[in-house]
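task queued by scheduler; priority normal; single chain, no ligands, no partner chains; default sampling; output format set to structure tokens
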Amino acid sequence: MSDQVTNQVTKTSGKSSLPASIAYALVAIAISTAFASGHLAIWLQNFGLGNYATYLEILVFLVIVVLAALATAMPGANRLTIISIAAFTGFFALTYNQEMLIKYLSLAALLFSIGMYGMIVSRNAVRVLMSIELMLNAVNLNLVAFARYVDPVHVRGQVFAIFILTVAAAEAAVGLAIVLAIYRNTTTVDMEKFNLLKW
């Protein structure tokens, strides 16, 4: 009886999570589109709030964050999808009127933060390796962006990025070999169970 109730609750929450995620995605896309086309600034001027048009990026970002908090509070909402949509639309809102170098650096900071979070939180060794690769690619994005917009004559940033890609490929190969060797002995890739350093 309890298994039937659990299955019914799981089915119900799975059905109710899709409309909440789609509704939030549509609202976030509508707000971003209105912001990008300049309609929000016109509406602020029509309501006599033209002085706040300079803070429109922060206003749109706060609205997206508040709506994301409300959407995740709904029962059965798919929090990961809503947080992902909020992160990308908030990134778009905060960097829309910035220079291209700022956009690239902000994207690299976002990718580096995601990689660091995955490296710290994850217990799966393969996921940790993927997070480290994401952090290295964020550094590559920084190097190429600085080389393009600060010193476009030379290709120093691109050369350093190629070196980092080479080191990352070697690190991935050696790391996966170590993980496979540990998996053969312990039948797990859980980082918390790797507590024996002996042959």
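post-processing summary
- Confidence is low (pLDDT under 50) at residues 1-15.
- The radius of gyration is 23 Å.
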